[in-house]
Amino acid sequence: MSAYNREQLEAIGLARKYLRTRLSSELSRLRRRIRNYLRFRKDTDRFLQHHFSEVCTHKCYQDRHSACCGREGITTFFADVVINVLVSSNEEVDRLVQALQVPNSGLKCVYLGDSGCLWRIKPIVCEMFLCKDAKKTVFEKAPNAHRRWQRLRWREKRYTWPDRPVLFDDLETVFIRAGYVSNLMYFHNSPGLLKVKGQAMRDGKPGLGKS
């Protein structure tokens, strides 16, 4: 098993273990905590289905032109894993585990099945990736779509850019306080993201530095 698959498998295991031991009231609080994020993801999915589904199907799955869904090329945040496990059935999570346990000798992502991504709520990096050619094809014909995409990118930062308290950082903190550690906890380990948080603290932004 590759180091990538092992890290992914361990993160899924941690998320499952924690969530299985929580009271129903705690799980309800977590689901409420991610409600706005799921609404953002639904809006983003509708936008991409409307504007990019045909273009991306042609470039990625027929011509194999794009680098998206490359083998071990996606960054998965620990919060991605937690959110996906929280909203998925046991059978859906089992399929992810099974995929990770099979050696990946191909060129594509281990999570890419015959019908697309195996995640119910795919990693945010995957959701927000549009290759240069796809953007050029769509946005040249639909400037309004470009403006909508910029608004969606701004909304994304409200959950993932830690210059303020954000959901992805908060979810890592919940697990860290419970004694869980994962290499995918980038909001507490990545030099780049720690630098963003440190600068925000120096700028006096409220709510930071409480992990």
Describe the secondary-structure layout.
Blueprint: H1 3-20, H2 24-33, H3 35-51, H4 53-62, H5 78-87, H6 90-100, E1 112-113, E2 116-117, H7 124-127, H8 132-139, H9 143-160, H10 167-177, H11 191-202
Antiparallel strand pairs: 1-2
Estimate the mean pLDDT confidence. 89
**E-strand count:** 2
The percent of residues in helical segments reads 55-70%
Unreliable spans: none
Q: What is the string of helix and strand elements?
A: HHHHHHEEHHHHH
Task: Evaluate the radius of gyration.
Answer: 18 Å
Quaternary organisation = single chain
In which order are the strands of the major sheet placed? 1-2
Cα-to-Cα separation, first versus last residue: 33 Å
- Tell me the strand percentage band: under 5%
What is the count of distinct domains? 1
Give a short account of the largest sheet: 2 strands, antiparallel
| Count of DSSP-assigned helices | 11
Structural class by helix and strand composition: mainly alpha
Shape, per Cα inertia axes: globular
